[in-house]
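Q: Could you write out the predicted structure for this multi-component system? I'm mainly interested in how the pieces pack against one another.
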Amino acid sequence: MSVDPTQRRAVRHAQPAAVPARQARRKPPITVDRITDAALEIVATEGYDALTMRSVAGALGTGPASLYAHVVNKADLDELLIGRLCAGLVLPEPDPAAWREQILGVCAQIRDQYLRYPGISRAALAMGPTDLEIVRVSEGMLAILLAGGVAPQAAAWAIDALLLYVAAYCLEASIVRQRSAQEDAVVVHDREEVLRRFAALPAATFPHTTRHAAELTAGEGHDRFDFTLALMVDGLVHR
Amino acid sequence: MSVDPTQRRAVRHAQPAAVPARQARRKPPITVDRITDAALEIVATEGYDALTMRSVAGALGTGPASLYAHVVNKADLDELLIGRLCAGLVLPEPDPAAWREQILGVCAQIRDQYLRYPGISRAALAMGPTDLEIVRVSEGMLAILLAGGVAPQAAAWAIDALLLYVAAYCLEASIVRQRSAQEDAVVVHDREEVLRRFAALPAATFPHTTRHAAELTAGEGHDRFDFTLALMVDGLVHR
DNA sequence: TCTACGTGTGGAACATTGTTCGTGTCAAGG
DNA sequence: CCTTGACACGAACAATGTTCCACACGTAGA
């Protein structure tokens, strides 16, 4: 009802300084955490391809140049994102009797994190092995495999293989989903359509593909993921 | 020494038509094959990241717009490239007694093709399964696995897994090589440097990583590739 | 209190890349 | 000859990562 006294006095003295100060206080400073949060939100809702410096800056109500006071470049932002995802993984206390379930569980966690942020595993594929959050995960997986009696060398290489496969699996899954959304009739990922095309191939040229079109296109949920992980872990067991 | 008679006559009649016609004959028409050849050459020498419509057009002595009369877009070009690489693969006649070596051999061939064109496996990860060249390779691999007595469903899913892993492995290898060339001291891929960093980690936080830094960074040539492929194929054998 | 310095903010500009638009040329068919 | 379709290609546009530069603010020192 009544005009703010400070405002009134400012008007009296033709002094607008009080207003900008209040405005500055209302806008939180840009931080790496806020950038990372905003970026993850964009990837979660629109996919990794929608992640641009401009989209992040827009979400923070600023311009893209402002981000460079906090991140080196876009690749640095990628690393922050993957680091954040890795930080969210729960690494179990290794149990020799359940190491197989444990390693599969960690991989499933990674997969689920990546799939929550469609396309982000592309960033993971570009990261070196020395980021501390990645080392933490690697350490946890190594502990599980060693507890399970896997030889150190095999364990080390298995981690590499598992992480590569998980990232590739998620990348493809994200692309499949993206393509489905686009309803591109030329390149198909939709299972029924692939099945149709496989079955329609000339049997003389593609005898096995036509005969086993159903198996080639089979799989619900993460059947393929589980199958491959089992292959690898079984391979470790029999090593 | 003597001026070309056609030229002389053209000058006489103030008719320049003969000159452009000759020039047109010297420049071969742009075709999909020429585009694909040029693109592969660029990727082979400068890596996938250097592949732009402009770089291809430049190599062909034209402008980027000219390419669009022959390729739909850049993604289409990607498919042409992967199709070309797949067409170069030699698929063996399946031999039940040697199916394991055969499947490993096909995967090694794919790997080598991808590594000859650094970074190109990124395009492979984005492709759907219905491209005819990819179906041909898939058919060949399926024939090998079935000849080896692998159940159709397992064979079908194994192909998916193998192709994903090979692409991811090559993508990472390309990025490692690229990073090494940049001598980026912050993110490291160089093995000795990774070993140094792993060994220098706090042992209390990363006991297994520090103790097994040597194994984590071990591997010459394609040791990791061979290890993982063996894991998968062994897993198939014991299924 | 005033001044200087360092840090953060953010618009403008730049280089690069994929793609479309529009124009000109050529060849084939009527 | 005229028309049509295909190809070639420069110009222009939109989008994206990044740098440059000016300004504002906070802190430390005189």
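A: Regarding packing and overall arrangement: The longest helix of chain B spans residues 152-182.
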